[in-house]
Amino acid sequence: MKFLPSTAFLLSLLSATGVFASPVPATASTKYELSPKKKFGIMSFHSGNFNVHLHPFFVGESGHVYLTQYDNADQVNEFYLKDSQLFHKDEIASLDKDGALVFKSSNNSSLTGFNTKQLTTGIGYEFRLNTSFPVACHVPNTNEVYQIYYGRENHTSECVGIATELIIP
Ligand SMILES: *[C@@H]1O[C@H](CO)[C@@H](O)[C@H](O)[C@H]1NC(C)=O
Ligand SMILES: *[C@@H]1O[C@H](CO)[C@@H](O)[C@H](O)[C@H]1NC(C)=O
Ligand SMILES: *[C@@H]1O[C@H](CO)[C@@H](O)[C@H](O)[C@H]1NC(C)=O
Ligand SMILES: *[C@@H]1O[C@H](CO)[C@@H](O)[C@H](O)[C@H]1NC(C)=O
Question: What is the DSSP letter of 50?
Fold first, then answer.
């Protein structure tokens, strides 16, 4: 009698071997700059809100950034910095007219001032736009989708301030 592994078994094996990125571990005293074009993920923190806390940034088809895999978001949620500008694939970050973070290759008015700073506690790297953290605003007519804004002044939906840190794969 032949033994064939079941599909369910194979699926559980695949998911068990899935790669999960984790926040940067404490690296004692070593303080190093991220090398240029070093790829990283960005993680949102806001301990009071389950839909926002410990969620990575995802870039949707529209180029907008969400905290869940919304808008057919890309599987690859990697970013890099160059000359303090933020890139996803070859698209550069800018703000659209309502202050939402968006990745569009053809936009002149790209944002400069993105920076990373090692936390004094040594548990990771903060990610800011100059001195600012973004806000995450609930996307209307969705259950739990939150979108990233840096320039938003006129809130039409529920927004919460978040902190952002790097995830180094
Ligand atoms: C680029 O960004 C500016 C400022 O937000 C916006 O007005 C303009 O429509 C954008 N251009 C393109 C080509 O997306
Ligand atoms: C916008 O982009 C176009 C095409 O790359 C370029 O010719 C133009 O100088 C840019 N404008 C500004 C203000 O950067
Ligand atoms: C960040 O600061 C630099 C230097 O002051 C400035 O040129 C840049 O426009 C700032 N970026 C934003 C998004 O305000
Ligand atoms: C917010 O948006 C409304 C409608 O577009 C506008 O009338 C109001 O002036 C805006 N408020 C601020 C503070 O921008």
Answer: T
Alpha-carbon span 148 to 116, nearest angstrom: 18
The helix/strand/coil state of 134 is coil
> Domains in the chain, ordered, with CATH?
37-167 (2.80.10.50)
Shortest-distance atom of ligand 1 to CA 108: 1
- Burial string for 57-67 (b: 16+ CB within 10 Å, else e) reads bbbbebbbbbb
Q: What is the pLDDT along the chain (169 residues), one digit of tens a residue?
A: 444 444 333 333 333 333 333 344 444 334 445 676 789 999 999 988 999 999 999 999 999 999 999 999 988 889 999 999 999 998 999 998 889 999 987 666 899 999 998 887 767 899 999 999 999 999 999 989 999 999 766 566 689 999 999 998 7
Cβ of residue 94 lying under 6 Å from some atom of ligand 1: yes
Pocket test for ligand 1, best of 94, 112, 149, 152 (most atoms within 8 A of CB): 94
**Which residue in 21, 23, 44 sits closest to 147, CA to CA?**
44
